[in-house]
Amino acid sequence: MYAHNASGPYTSISQLVHGFLGDPSVPGLRTTVLFAAFAKNTSSTTDANGDTEKMAGLLSYSDASPANLSVEIGIMTVPAFQRTHVTSNAVGLLMQYAFGPLALRRVEWQCSTANTASVNAAKRLGFQLEGVKRWDRVYPKGKVGNGLSVGEGRGEGVGRDTAVLSVCWDDWESGVREKLQAVMDRTK
Question: I want to staple 133 with a disulfide (CB 3.0 to 4.6 A). Which of 27, 48, 72, 162 is the partner?
Answer without folding.
Answer: 162
